[in-house]
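fyi for ur records
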Amino acid sequence: MSHQYYITGFMGSGKTTIGQALADKIGYHVIDTDKWVENKEQMSISEIFEKKGEDYFRDLETQALLELQGDHMIITTGGGIIKKDRNREIMASQGEIIYLQADFDELLRRLEGDETRPLLQQQDKERIQALYESRLELYEQADIIVNTVGRSVLGIVAELESILKS
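which gave:
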């Protein structure tokens, strides 16, 4: 297993948690594109959205993908990184894409009360669901798809470890 993996999925799918647990389990280094962007800009993603806009943020995600390359790496991504064709091309050419799948109602339950996500602010359930549905086909282009509903972190990591070893 010497490779680079990208973990994708909608907000609340568990990308950061699963990415860290998987990295710990298989001895890989984990980097989060959102954290990379925040460090580079010295502001939160919410501030970036507010002050510079979503397009600027999406360009920073592309820059992160271009710079974050290496062996034995797991890169956890923001939920919207798959929106840009260029980002999907970069990820597909540099490694394998893992999609952490969960149905919309489960994701909404997990996100309840989360005020750190700019795209959730002042959005009603229908608009969030439309966002989810608009991305679904892009997420499903992943190399590996793992359903996370009703499963423990350890169970998901064990499944991923088994897939990655085969």
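The mean pLDDT is 89. thats all i got for now
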